[in-house]
Amino acid sequence: MKNTDWSQLWLAYHKVSDDGGKWHISFDGFDEKNRVINSLKNEVSLALPKLTGAEITDTGADTELKVIKDSSIAKEGFVVKKMGSTVTIGASDENGALYGMFELLRLITLREVDADFELLSEPDNPLRMMNHWDNMDGSIERGYSGRSFFYVNNEIIVDDRTRDYARFMASIGINGIVINNVNVKQAASYMITDRYFSKLRELSEVFADYGIKMYLSLNFASPIEIGGMDICDPLDEGVISWWKDKCKEVFTELPELGGFLVKADSEGRPGPFTYGRTQADGANMLADIVKEYDKLIIWRCFVYNCTQDWRDKKTDRARAGYDYFKDLDGEYHDNVILQIKNGPMDFQIREPVSPLLGGLTKTNQMLEVQIAQEYTGHQIDLCYLMPMFKEVLEFRTHCQDDKDTVADVISGKAFGNKNCGIAAVINTGNDLNWTGNDLAAANTYGFGRLAFDTTLSSEEIAREWVKLTFALSEDAEDKLVKMLLDSRRIYEKYTCPLGIGWMVTPETHYGPSVDGYEYSRWGTYHRADHLGLGVDRSDKGTGYAQQYYKENAEIYNDPKTCPEELLLFFHHIPYTWKMMDGRTLIQYIYDTHFEGESEAEELAAMWDSLEKEIEPEAFARVKQRFDMQIHNAREWRDQVNSYFFRKSGIADEKGRDIF
Question: 303: burial class by Cβ within 10 Å (0-12, 13-18, 19+)?
């Protein structure tokens, strides 16, 4: 057991040896005064003495570290090479050099630098972003890790914690950060005024030191909110003129800003629909204005009518994104990126990949996932999300014969896009360990690693994170990696298997409420009756399945070919339906909820077995979370099983108590 500074996450730099000797660092082709190169030097000087006891020196070096500019390497890529006593980092730009240095430090921490080696790594996605949902009063929407470290009482904070956060993000290859909630509240509307320019400039420069572009979420109604206008119609000349003046002011004061993220026409947010305009009208108006400054407009596709009448069996929120955006494919300008959630709904533990991904063939696309565990356990329940993200990235859209996976689409490989990538909704807060549950940091680390290199496996990433974060025996390491890899399957079992989704407490989204869909005044989301449950999204139901290309549409349309893990998402199924393993649907529901709760207890027991290898403070924090998870799993098991027993009138074949 070694002392760990939990505030440093995976950059705590555990000592791995005492034979570091003397290191000399030289630069060829890079300006040592460059801000990113300066951050590289600072990190090496911090890390090497902690890791190996090394001394950074100008004379008598045992190891020569050369950082060399190499134009043959792709943008932000790097080569790390060791030959004898010489270590070389090659890159075509400063970001690549910084990432190469973090890779070297990672390899040293993992004890993988003894033999000579050469490693080339080039980013799979041009944009690799974090989206914060922080509010200026210090609260965080879907925050489970304390309050904001960006804002306190409507003021912007820039301090050592901010710089540490930038270091963490650069170490996993993140190059863009949105610092405020996409649901822009009135106070945040004023971020694009001179009240906040000074602090925003300071914050953007901290990020720029680590090769990261800062972005702001934008209120589409700013001409009304802060401009004193009566409208925000994107085709109105007065509105356009206001935005031109405002953007000139913003980008003159904040030259490091990368652009704006916009949520419009959803959940009460204002947008172009108010004026009979399209989403393309709204996005392109802003894009044309910011193009002069070489900035981006990232436009979220989370657009749906939350007042739909669910009593109409043809009504389907899942259809909304495709219905609103597909017919506008090709109408968005080059500096607009459509940011598309991984599924058509709202970050459920299981849902199909959004048909917009690959459905759009002439438009810049960015995948949006969530590492803030809004529907996946609130960073109380253990739920390692890389297996889910891998499933999404590897999904074949059939948008063309080859290079048709989601990873191909968002990387630009499918259609040659340059403005594309992947973003995660994140809620790191001011808790000492940043993520509330120490184990939840695996999702933060994992997302960045996967965004940079989509070929990494869930296990590779989990093992890296465990080794970088803890100092465990081989057996304990294996146990913790297994816990992470099993956790999503276990959480799914005791909550919402078979793709049904929701059934969570409205608004808070934690704990079971079987009829608890937010808009349940129009009926339950799962549409259960005394005969069966699930939503018919076939061509005989809402027609959602037909939004996919033929190859996937045909599979999803038929309950006999539909993947079982999505069965209830696409079909209304009788309780007596025979599953592939011979069980009836209702028995499958009973069994999985009992199994999930039992396996949650096994996770907790496995954590208990690690007590002697985990520092007491961290062990106690995580143990408390597991106690809460077991309670949650039991609540889910009992409420779901009881509900469907009463609906169906069919008893558990195994005679267990279902209250």
Answer: buried
| 415-464 tens-digit pLDDT | 999 999 999 999 999 999 999 999 999 999 999 999 999 999 999 999 99
**Gap between the terminal Cα atoms of the chain:** 45
Strand partners, 298: 261, 337
* H or E stretch at 425: strand 421-426
Q: What pLDDT, in 10s, does the model give residues 316-335? A: 889 999 999 999 999 999 99
CA distance 129 to 300: 14
CA distance 162 to 488: 31
Find out whether 197 and 216 touch, Cβ atoms under 8 Å. no
Q: Are 1 and 471 in contact, with CB atoms under 8 Å apart?
A: yes
Residue 596 DSSP symbol: H
Tokens, residue 258: 């990368």
Place of tokens 């990538």: 421
Identical fold at 127-469 and 493-535+572-648? no
The CATH classification number of 6-121 equals 3.30.379.10
199 alpha carbon, distance to own chain's centre:
26
Query: What is the spatial distance between Cα 367 and Cα 374, in angstroms, rounded to a whole number?
Result: 17
* Catalytic residue numbers, as ranges: 267, 346, 374
Closest Cα to residue 322, out of 535, 525, 545, 502?
545
The answer to whether the CB of 383 falls within 8 A of the CB of 491 is: yes
Tell me the torsion sign for CA atoms 502, 506, 507, 511. Answer: negative
Query: pLDDT value at position 522?
Result: 53
What percentage of the chain exceeds 70 in pLDDT? Answer: 97
What kind of architecture, by CATH, is found in domain 493-535+572-648? Answer: Alpha-Beta Complex (3.90)
Tokens of 609: 């077995």
CATH 3.20.20.80 fits 127-469, yes or no: yes
Phi and psi based region of residue 26 (left: phi greater than 0; alpha: psi -120 to 50; beta: remaining): beta
> What is the model's pLDDT at position 252?
98
The angle formed by the CA atoms of residues 424, 429 and 435, to the nearest 5 degrees, is: 70
Domain boundaries, the chain: 6-121, 127-469, 493-535+572-648
Residues 6+ away with beta carbon under 8 Å from 552: 396, 397, 398
Please report the pLDDT score of residue 311 as a whole number.
Answer: 58
Amino acid at position 588, single letter: Y
DSSP characters over 313-362: TT--GGGHHHHHHGGGTT-S-TTEEEEEESSSSSS-SS-PPPTHHHH-SS
pLDDT at 521 over 60: no
Residue 149 in tokens = 């470290």
**pLDDT given at position 525:** 82
For position 1, what pLDDT does the model report?
Answer: 55
Give the H or E element holding residue 636: helix 616-648
